[in-house]
Amino acid sequence: MRIGNNVKLGVNIDHIATLRQARHDIDPDPVAAAQVAKQAGADMIVTHLRQDRRHIQDADLAKLCELKGETHLEIADIPEMLAIALKCKPGSVCIVPERRQEVTTEGGLNLSAGASKSIAKSVERLKKAGIEVSLFIDPEAAAVRAAKGLGADTVELCTTSYSEAKGKAKAKAELERLELAGYLAYELGLNLHAGHGLDYHNVRPVAGIPHLSALNIGFSIIARSVFVGLKSAVAEMRQLVS
Questions:
Q1: Which structural domain, as residue segments, surrounds residue 65?
Q2: Catalytic site includes residue 48
Q3: Domain CATH for 107
Q4: pLDDT tens digits along 94-143
Q5: Which residue, of 34, 46, 141, 234, has the greatest Cβ tally within 10 A?
Q6: Catalytic residue among 70, 74, 156, 179
Q7: What is the DSSP code (8-state) at residue 16?
């Protein structure tokens, strides 16, 4: 839900761990980064535990879930990750597509009838454990309806096409896609999140989408923090999405 007139800001701290894993050292510590982000205005901490453990590790997740405030976990729909989520009990889980070869998440989930059977079971198990469940989807009416049918509490709209749009006309068209999907999600009683590829230059229009409750942003904040520090980078994004 909105906080006053503000959209909740979820700060993804994965790439703090990416830097640490470059040397397999103890610093920089993503748990410490999460605490700084919260102090600077993050409403929730977002992290993706990948199968290849390229950044966040299991021990990181366990510690993040012990912190006060909401930890929002992104996972692939596989038994190993589901078991970890049920053990660590984050406040919410977003099921995302994942390929080992990808640099970053490439788009929304495949929610076709055949592909969604496993997701439906995972959603049910997570919800029974008291964990709010989100599905990462493309901004399409069919995907929104499918997410509702699978029992999701929330949909997170993939903003990649908007973020990568060339020219004002294309960006406007992609923003309209997001808005229309958002209206449908609201009508169906789903919470609305959005994210992926958003930065300090393109986030404002997305933050203004009606019924949007949260934006999840990571790479641009961590990249900005190299020059201004993490606290300032989060505070600057907090101001933009308010």
A1: 8-241
A2: yes
A3: 3.20.20.70
A4: 999 988 776 777 789 989 877 789 999 999 999 999 999 999 999 999 99
A5: 46
A6: 74
A7: H
